[in-house]
């Protein structure tokens, strides 16, 4: 809901009017002659004009004489010359003349104006800029002089009737939150026993897994108001503003209780305070205010605070201690069944045709978040429209997964014949190595159509189900599969290309994790040499070992990758005929499915 504010005439409007009046006053007060184009003439010309009685009006100023001639519209000026009887002669010629008075305005008024005018302009400008800024920041009071004083702002949001049934998968999270819904329906049941509800619930998980949706669903199920604000909205330009917003938010929430307050991205304000002098004062004050507010309300007031974050480890311990956000609900990436359910929920909104195999789509989209799955469905609908159909078919969904994973097909990339051959062999290499190792998942699809992501082709491997554990051998086989592309180039062309950059990165990551985190090397046994920093955001790691050990780790990683690369090459050399055969089919068709691939593979081995 938008901010509700009484309509107010902008202050700049009044300043504008004052300014206009001053300018008008100035213009009217100015002598007529000063407003027109003035021509400079010799003093002798002026004297002649007096003699000939042509002068109409004269104004004598401090440093010049300004005059007009009769029957002429022009204004002349001339310098001052020592001329004692000028006045007499002018009088005789019948000209009207006067000596200029210091200023057209009284000295007091003009002095006052010269001070006030810049001030007025300055203030008006300031007001204008603040208004501009406020508009850019989405209607929040930012620089206005009412700083620190909060406008009556409403944070209530419509939940548009979002229910738990709209959030697919995430059953554990829903179960956890159902208790809160129950409490909001019937608080007495809980107070009777003496139980208190947690004040704060922290929803923790990677981006796009439905944390916001879940919070809205809790409000929707309980039929209570939903207050929503993002952590980053608290962090303002001025110290104290964020804290005032927190106060404001809770004041409103308490008035509307029972209700849900949802703080998205709470890590923006809730980061660990590290006691640095150079710390962010504003953030700290905001956090302190939040802690105070959470302590401030009595148990069972009916205000439940839900917060979302994808960096739970970076939160200040004061925020996660009992009595504040004491309950943590993990909202993880969906598993296979979850993905299928999410796809089905979103598919309800679009028109479909024929038999749609959601299970297959869910299998292809391994590792995708709820938001990405929603996007896949939408991309499929867009593709259907693009192709002039009025319903989505299975092919649209399959293609849109590739779009989400690898980007759109790049129609105008022209590979040379040789390049295309290399790519075909490279991708076949991956697939063949994967298929030949018993533990590797079968290939779903191989294509050598360039994508906007820069990939010239890729091999889509598909797990049969979700895998929660990987054995050492399985990881080794994965590394071998990653090296399979490059190995094929070596075996067939005896040359190597840049096409393996991504494979190299992934193989190295796996090999390193085996040694530093999974304890899969003889030498280091079960010692952690690396810690994961951001579980939900990319999972970057930092080393926790001595420099000597680092050297040893590096050596081991190289050894491990080399070993698997060697293995991949051997597999390909032993299956050279099939490699050629498969690469040829791929080169000609540009895409082959997993089934076609296995068919070719099997038919060869049957004959031998
Ligand atoms: P988060 O807050 O975790 O970053 P959101 O709740 O904003 O993620 O989810 C973004 C979008 O992704 C939602 O609007 C919804 O369309 C889709 N989505 C994510 N998770 C789910 C889910 N479990 N079920 C259905 N849709 C989901
Ligand atoms: Zn590759």
Describe the structure.
The protein is an alpha/beta fold and 608 residues long. It folds into 3 domains: 153-273 and 280-330, Rossmann fold (3-Layer(aba) Sandwich), CATH 3.40.50.300; 336-406, Helicase, Ruva Protein, domain 3 (Orthogonal Bundle); 418-607, Peptidase M41 (Methane Monooxygenase Hydroxylase, Chain G, domain 1), CATH 1.20.58. Helix content is 50%, strand content 12%. The protein is built from 22 helices and 16 strands. It has helices at residues 11-29, 43-51, 86-93, 107-136, 171-185, 187-193, 211-222, 231-234, 241-256, 267-270, 281-296, 317-320, 336-347, 358-364, 370-386, 394-406, 417-436, 472-493, 501-516, 547-574, 576-589, 594-607; strands spanning 38-40, 55-60, 64-69, 75-79, 96-99, 156-157, 200-204, 226-230, 259-264, 303-309, 327-330, 443-447, 458-461, 530-532, 541-543, 591-593. A 6-stranded mixed β-sheet has the order 6-8-9-10-7-11. α17 packs antiparallel against α18 (472-493) and α19 (501-516) crosses α20 (547-574). It is elongated and about 130 Å long. Residues 1-8 and 138-152 have low confidence and may be disordered. It binds adenosine-5'-diphosphate and zinc ion. Zinc ion (ZN) is lined by residues 426, 430, 485, 500, 503.
Largest sheet descriptor: 6 strands, mixed
Count every beta strand, where a strand is a DSSP E run of 2 or more residues.
16
CATH topology of the largest domain: Methane Monooxygenase Hydroxylase, Chain G, domain 1
The CATH superfamily title of the largest domain: Peptidase M41
Helix fraction, binned, reads 40-55%
Tell me, what is the CATH class of the largest domain? Mainly Alpha
What is the CA-based Rg, rounded? 40 Å
- Total helical segments: 22
Strand arrangement within the widest β-sheet reads: 6-8-9-10-7-11
Unreliable stretches = 1-8, 138-152
Pfam families: AAA, AAA_lid_3, FtsH_ext, Peptidase_M41
InterPro entries: AAA+_ATPase, AAA_lid_3, ATPase_AAA_core, ATPase_AAA_CS, FtsH, P-loop_NTPase, Pept_M41_FtsH_extracell, Peptidase_M41
Active site: 427
Function: Acts as a processive, ATP-dependent zinc metallopeptidase for both cytoplasmic and membrane proteins. Plays a role in the quality control of integral membrane proteins.
